[in-house]
Amino acid sequence: MMIKINKDLKENPRLRHGALAILDIVLVILAVYVSMELRFEMYIPQRHLVTMMRFLPLLVAGYMLAFYFGGVYKIMWRFAGVRDLMRLFLVSTIACLISLACNRFFNLDLFRSVLILTGLFSMLFVGGIRLLWRIFSKDRISSFGSNAMPVMIVGAGESGAYAVNICNKNPGRMGKPILLVDDDPTKQGLRIQNTPVMGKTEDIPDLVTRFGIREIIVAIPSLNATKRMQRILELCNQAHCHTRMFSGPTDLGPNGEIAPQIRELNISDFLSRDEIELDTRNISGYLNHKCVMVTGGGGSIGSELCRQILRFNPRLLIIFEIYENCAYELEYELHQRFGEQCPVLVLIGSIRDRKRLDEVMEEYHPDVVFHAAAHKHVPLMERSPAEAIKNNVFGTLNLLESASTHGVERLVQLSTDKAVNPANVMGATKRITEMLIQSYGAKTQMKCMAVRFGNVLGSHGSVIPLMERQIRSGGPVTVTHPDVTRYFMTIPEAAQLVIQAGAFAESGAILVLDMGDPVRIMDLAEKLIRAYGYEPNEDIPIKIIGLRPGEKLAEELLMDSERSRMTKTGHRKIFVAHVDPVDEEQLQKMLEELRAVSDENDEGTVEVIASVVPTYHPWKDNKSA
User: Fold this and answer.
1) What top-level class would CATH report for the domain 280-621?
2) For residue 92, which of 123, 204, 266, 491 is within the disulfide window of CB 3.0 to 4.6 Å?
3) What is the pTM of this model?
């Protein structure tokens, strides 16, 4: 019978509110009685008792109307907080003041002290019974999750409290929070939703062992990509626990809202990077109220460029993309994030189609172009060198010619560290595009620059998503060589620095981003495996598969001739590589030779590329590396 009543109350809101209203009537009457008992010291004169009984229905009705119109019955008391208690206090105070005013103006002959005490006890009784029910509900949740996976929360701030709440709501899926750790000494011994703060971050390995913790949730978003965060993740790695990360409200929820989430750890969390400080005044100077075009705008870097550019209020943002699915999804996301009226236009087209580029330039007259469209996958371009030439070289040439003809003010080309002493076709073709940027920067009024940087975490084709899939499938995790190293940067960091680099005025410049120290891929693989709660080469094997075609053991950001002449810019993370000047006649001859082999995917094409890019050493000469 009780189970049926409980089910009816849960499924029928009107029935539930009606039951609460009846309970509140009883509680208000009890408050009146207790108030009179206290006022008359346990003996209530008959005259005052009769007077109170006469006006009791009006008094109770007043409180019930105040509760109803004050929104007390709209509060979900199971998740009530301080604001909800303040609302109840305010509503009870208003009801008390109304009863005092009526008593004064209508000469009801009621004691003011009784009316004041009635307001106080009504609030205490009504609020108290709800808080007791809330505590009882939390106990029910805890007992329900008693067999759930034990979880530790790192961070006892707002994010930690949110993580505890999320776990308590769904312990079967999220696990049961057993304890929190925090380095703030004032929080030690406190509780968040009955979960104790029991130590500091340095105690993580010991607490994991003592309490049988099987999962750790790091809930300190303010420390993302800092050295302190790196230390915390190292401690979680030592504990051999599956680790997840609380992500702040940066990602869109299912209904388009900005919603925090608890996500899997990724390698970017292990890289301690300084926060990017943007010179917003200079950036706004060349983006604000301008028409900005991003080629390859649906790709990993291109899409992040679009997100960052919209922060600077462009007149129009043109997403120029050959792959319609990515472009459509990005357009939908930008409208969800920045509003339906945000000035975004998706145009489908290829940089290999000069006529299509001219159509777009003629109709929209972009002021600034970010050129992110390119073939970037090293092993694939080794097998199809002519496609790299057609897309990377002549596609860029088409864009430069069309942009300079139609009055584009500034063009920013995204280059790569693989253009330095290239060992692959992709890097060699990107080096040629840098030479094209130098040429058009010198012979046109358009400000042209290339921005050179290394690998971007999370981009399409990145090694990290591959490793994550391998771990989830039980391994092995493949690494090309035990000593291979790479420069890494997060997608937002790369996009922000590219936009910042575009603000510099030196036309024809090759700008180099500070990528930090190179990272050993083997170390990344081991950290990622431990982040999933496994031990490398015990639970998940690591397999060495050898360097792929076109790969080097270590990438470089500068050539030897550039290193001694590198200069600083106004931004501490952006430098200028002073490359050798381009001979225009020699460049045109180079392009003619490349055009002649741009339809042949054979060794002859590679030989021609090597002849026009002296620093290019085809991969077959580097197999011993």
Assistant:
1) alpha beta
2) 123
3) 0.65
